[in-house]
Design a protein that fits this description.
Strand 3 and strand 4 form a beta hairpin. The protein has two helices and 13 strands. Helix content is 16%, strand content 44%.
Length: 246
């Protein structure tokens, strides 16, 4: 009887510890999402620097506007051949792409969401408005580092291009420091490094560098002239607004 009680108590304690551990991982990921989507709206100038393995660089510039978590628009302003290209992210992972050459907006399909976001090292999935908590199930791998947690994110959907993502999360503020991406074959093939800054009451990723390890190619995104909570109009985030005004 005593052995039975001991076994039962051990089972309960282990179950409770697993539950608490799981909840802790979920709360950490939710905290990261909350930090990333805290502003009511934001606007910034975006500089993209694409660098190949020889060190050759291509520079692009865009204006980015975002309202809440799910509404975001990018409109390219440089170089000349990119001017007018625009993307619109909406709720339910809906993404529209406007190409001036075709003079119309096209909806990005589930298949093409795994492809490069307008030729960068980011995929359309990476640029999704959906939170990480919505798309992934987290597990704490380590918290031994004095400064960072290490989380393993497993996709909830088989449609994700990733088998998992490893996130290094700042313990104090819960912003990501680094993400490591694994493909469907469980091969580590790219990573993102983040440089977060605080402006007013908000933290934001001033610089993000995404590196494709296979292609030896990287894309750096730099935000400048960022503005928060301006009261951006909802009408900006429409398919009709993707086409430049005459």
């Amino acid at each position: 009887m005593n052995n039975y009680k001991t076994t039962w108590i051990y089972f309960v304690l282990v179950t409770l510890s697993i539950t608490v551990y799981s909840q802790s991982a979920a709360s950490l990921l939710t905290g990261m999402d909350a930090l990333m989507s805290a502003p009511k709206d934001k606007e910034a100038l975006v500089k993209m620097v694409l660098k190949d393995k020889s060190g050759k660089e291509k520079v692009r510039e865009a204006i980015m506007k975002q309202k809440g978590q799910y509404h975001k628009i990018y409109r390219y302003t440089f170089p000349e051949k990119q001017i007018g290209i625009a993307t619109l992210s909406l709720p339910d992972d809906i993404i529209w792409l406007y190409m001036p050459a075709f003079n119309k907006a096209v909806k990005v399909t589930l298949l093409s969401k795994s492809q490069a976001f307008t030729g960068t090292d980011f995929s359309y999935e990476d640029m999704s408005g959906s939170s990480y908590s919505e798309r992934f199930t987290p597990k704490i791998l380590s918290s031994s580092d004095d400064n960072n947690y290490q989380l393993e994110l497993m996709p909830k959907s088989m449609k994700s291009r990733y088998s998992k993502i490893i996130v290094y999360l700042n313990k104090t503020h819960l912003y990501p420091i680094r993400m490591e991406y694994f493909d469907k074959n469980k091969v580590y093939f790219k990573n993102a490094k983040f440089n977060y800054k605080k402006q007013g009451k908000y933290w934001y990723a001033k610089e993000v560098v995404m590196t494709d390890l296979k292609k030896e190619h990287s894309t750096e995104i730099i935000l400048t002239e960022i503005k928060f909570d301006q009261g951006i109009d909802d009408n900006i985030f429409t398919v009709e607004n993707l086409k430049p005004k005459e």
